[in-house]
Sequence to fold (370 residues):
Amino acid sequence: MSICTRPCLVLAAACVLLDLRAAGAAAEIPPAERRSGYEFMGRETRAMQDDDAGNPGLLWVLDGEALWKRKAGAADRACADCHGDARASMKGIAARYPAIDAALGRPVNLEQRINACRTGRQKAAPLAFESRDLLALTAYVARQSRGLPIDIAIDEPTRPFLQAGRETFYRRQGQLNLACAQCHDDHWGAKLAGSPITQAHPTGYPLYRLEWQGLGSLERRLRSCLAGMRAEPYAYGAPEFVDLELYLMWRARGMKIETPAVRP
Amino acid sequence: MARAVVTLPAQARRGEIIEIKTLAAHPMETGFRRTQLGELIPRDIIRRFVCTYNGAEVFRVDLHPAVAANPLIAFTTVATESGTIAFQWVGDNGYSVTETASIRVE
Fold:
């Protein structure tokens, strides 16, 4: 990955700039100023996302639809055998995740919820994080919420996890000593290595990144942000990640789900 | 599993120009990349795409390593008669996918 060197140098230069401007650090973005990553993209990439005939994320959604109906595991049951038609039963579900899992007593993201169903109900092996099948099922479920507003309910049991996610967002970490908020709250709209800095609203996951040449999860995106900050990325499914996802989704509450989105 | 998606109008007027969009699921591995251990990742690309309209070839593409993964190929043709439009993608490692769509021309 020889391309890593230059953005990292630029990032190092940018963080000097960030340090100077951090004195007047902004707070959370006011609701009226929130923008989806979609609005930072070029015309062509937007068109790619909007056109179902050209959005490559639809290939995963179609795979997910096939998996939804396929029987799996020792129980020999398909998702559809319990949940029926996903277009009705899964509508709005992705807009409410991560959500508290009663058995675990802590929030789980959509991928973990699907795997809990697989091991608990289907008696099948869990799907690996970032595997094509898990991404496909997640994309298919989340697709049913397209156009619906993110609706994270914060109640007493959820509050400590939201607070933990918020702390991760504002905590400086890695060799560059950066916090998520320094880019995504304080400097959104500016450029980093030629690319716009967005507000980090997870409205379209799993999404198709042209850089990845494929579909990926929010955790994959977070891992590459952490690597860019030269911090040790958390493992897939780590509680720290799920708390951060919960905070990011809450931060984007009311914004519309775009899954499967396309991003550069 | 979804191998390819084809989008075109189900019906058209005779002589009308119709747009056809095709999306194929394929990694389009260039053959120039290496693994972290330095081994060359073998080329795996779609080499040819052909569209036939009632058996007659109307559109053809040769693809090369610079084409991105999951290639979207969009083109136009003239709706001449009702019938079948067939699509075929052929590539490395025995990759071959065919799709058909029917069109009604009035």
User: Anything to note?
Assistant: The domain at 3-105 of chain B is CATH 2.60.40.10 (Immunoglobulin-like). Strands of chain B lie at 4-7, 11-12, 17-24, 46-53, 56-62, 72-78, 83-91, 96-105. Chain B touches chain A at residues 1-2, 5, 7, 21, 23, 25, 27-28, 68-70, 72, 74 (CB under 8 Å).
